[in-house]
Amino acid sequence: MTTPDTPAPDAPPPWLEELPPRQIVQALDRYIVGQEAAKRAVAIAIRNRWRRSQAPDEIRDEIMPYNIILIGPTGVGKTEVARRLARLAGAPFVKVEASKFTEVGYVGRDAESMVRDLVDAAINMVRTEREDEVYPQAEERAEERLLDILLPPPVPARPERGEPPEGTGRPAIFVVGPAGQARSEPAADGEDERRSRSREKLRQMLRDGKLDDREVEIEVTPQGYPMLEMMQPPQGMEGEQANFMEMLQDMLPRRKKRRIVRIPEARRILIDEELKKLVDMDDVVNEALDRAENHGMIFVDEIDKIAGERGTAVGPDVSREGVQRDLLPIVEGCTVQTRYGYIRTDHILFVAAGAFHVSKPSDLIPELQGRFPIRVELTPLTEADFIRIMTEPENALTRQYQALVAAEGASLEFTSDGVEEVARIAWLANDRMENIGARRLHTVMSAVMDEVLFELPDYPEKRIVFDRATVRQRLAKIIDDDDLRRYIL
């Protein structure tokens, strides 16, 4: 039993403890309009990861994640939920397309590659955290190496016979006497002081950027071997075969080559080398595997593309059910071999999404349906939702175009009736043709802004205002022409 003062052995970092479900929903509200049921479902699932880590040891392994399947038409926010979760959760996260996988025996990616991708994401996440911790130390080491290049240390001369003086703490210099014999003497204190002052002056100039135009010669280690990179195993064979190439690269000697680069580039290269020395990759791998197993999330998009009426699939659709069968043990819980070691998938959270225009969730094999017990239907977007999408989120389309126009020294303003007109036209286009959700707003906005963005460098008016009349004028030709509307909107 874990106490409040003693975290569980696999307790997540503080980022999950600071995100109760209500706060997760509020964070998603900043970018996604509506779809409250989907936000609540994923918020509860994320919080349950932390609740599980606080459970007693004897029941912790029995608490399985409740996988979620998001059902709704395209463009309503399914993928956006996944993108924002990846930034909020702080846990290893990977998004995959179910349509890219094929049944074992066919050419293509096997389903286990999604777990290997998750481990790679966890490795990158943990390594970045470790590098951030030691970055100041790496900067100091790189700076000292740069100073050694700019002001090389003196090379002590040695006499032909005899040893240099011991215990002086300074490099020896050798003086030739009247008779021609050489005798060693310690360097004068003044030489050390002058050298120290010169080094500090160079350090200050380096930090002030006064030496950025100077070129230096450094030794670098090539990242890899081009011929070995060409011999990498094809997709679907990333397991045991991938480790052989890495072992071969480790056995071959690393040849260093000399490059002449400017000071900023040299600083970056040296910092990267020092970070590799300071970060313990064994510790990174152990931490990453633990995070991937206990806090990893895999978002499987387009899962409806591998669903079909069972027993009737022929021809190119023959592998659909096979992909489901390959996906089933991963979602149920199995052991997958990666290049960093074995990983169990029992406690990885899977969130699937699909439009299910043609097929239905019931067309999935029953075993796979049972592994996604939580189903959330996302509602189609209305005209009022379009207005909110264009004004409320922090990354609203109107704000994006304002930033683009501001780069040319102009200002852009959308009046409230102008926004309403864009939303109305987008909703009508979805109603008359294929409903592609909020993506229709991108199409309409690009048609509205086309002339402005093209003529903007020479535009006479630097304050651009779009109201209802201006929007109608820009889109009049497209709206009135059925053929153009069919292909453009």
Structure description:
The chain folds into three domains: 14-124 and 292-377, Rossmann fold; 126-153 and 193-283, no CATH class; 383-488, Helicase, Ruva Protein, domain 3, CATH 1.10.8.60. Strands 2-7-10-1-11 form a five-stranded parallel sheet, with helices on both faces. The chain has helices spanning 14-17, 21-29, 36-53, 57-60, 78-89, 113-150, 189-208, 226-230, 240-251, 263-278, 281-295, 320-332, 366-370, 383-391, 397-406, 416-432, 439-455, 468-480, 482-488, and strands at residues 68-71, 93-97, 172-176, 182-186, 215-220, 257-262, 297-301, 335-338, 341-344, 349-354, 374-377, 411-414, 463-466. The protein has 489 residues and is α/β, with parallel strands linked by helices. The protein is flat. Helix 2 runs antiparallel to helix 3 (36-53). 50% of the residues lie in helices and 13% in strands.
CATH topology assignment of the largest domain: Rossmann fold
Name the CATH architecture of the largest domain.
3-Layer(aba) Sandwich
**Structure summary, number of beta strands:** 13
Give the termini separation.
60 Å
CATH class of the largest domain: Alpha Beta
Question: Could you name the CATH homologous superfamily of the largest domain?
Answer: P-loop containing nucleotide triphosphate hydrolases
- State the helical fraction: 40-55%
Summed over residues and divided by their number, the pLDDT gives a mean of 78
Strand content: 5-15%
Largest sheet: 5 strands, parallel
State the secondary-structure class: alpha/beta
Low-confidence runs of at least 5 consecutive residues:
1-14, 225-232
Sheet with the most strands: spatial strand order: 2-7-10-1-11
Number of helical regions: 19
Radius of gyration: 31 Å
